[in-house]
Amino acid sequence: xxxxxxxxxxxxxxMILVLSSLLIISRQVQDPTGISYFxxxxxxxxxxxxxxxxxxxGGVRSIWGDYLFFFGTRAENTxxxxxxxxxxxEVQKLREELYRVGRLEEFSAYRFETGFTGxxxxxxxxxxxxxxxxxxxxxxxxEGLKRSLPVVxxxxxxxxxxxxxxxxxxxxxxxxxxxxxxxxxxxxxxxxILEGESSGTCQLKxxxxxxxxxxxxxxxTSGLAGIYPRGIEVGTITQVLAxxxxxxxxxxxxPKAPINRLEDVLIIRTEQxxxxx
Length: 277
Description:
This protein is an alpha+beta fold. About 40% of the residues lie in helices and about 25% in strands. The strands form two sheets. A six-stranded antiparallel barrel has the order 1-2-5-4-3-12. The radius of gyration is 47 Å and the shape is rod-shaped.
């Protein structure tokens, strides 16, 4: 290679001088558009690279824009889902408030019709087993409650208060095995004692076998024993069990109050209720 350059150095020098001259001339001479031939040559050579670079930059810019759009859309969707969830929660709260307002209006109408004075309470707990049928309400001694107060709903008798604390009380339901309520069969005026069966029903005991008792008869409180005011509906006789011997007959009673799904109850002031006997 060195020998080649030495032998042809004159021609090579001449070619370099010629190219230099042409370069100088092209920078001076302009085409009809006013751009020099040298600059146009540079533009022509560089144009493919510029186009490629512009395409790459445009692609990157498009991808970045799509990413920002997707990210923004996802953030907006997340915000909308949170707002929708909050709205559903607020709607549910409003439904509960409307239910409670309606229930309290029911209690108010019941007090007006019966003349009873009482206090509404919310059920906040219940017995954990099926043998002891009790509920816990959110009223106690600080609200003036005491033991043996009767508990009802506008549908019928629920039970009575057996324990109290400052702001809560335990209510024994009429379906509890230890519950005893003096009652009357509304149609025939037959007297009996209503006892709980823990299964959600009750039975009439000590019902004279000569009494006229039929399926479908309404059972109400008799007002005896000084706990339950007279005339509160208890339930309906669903079955009469007449035996061939003995002094008494028995009957199954289905409570009128929704014992298995209580949410709100009314605790009656006994003294006020007894005035109605």
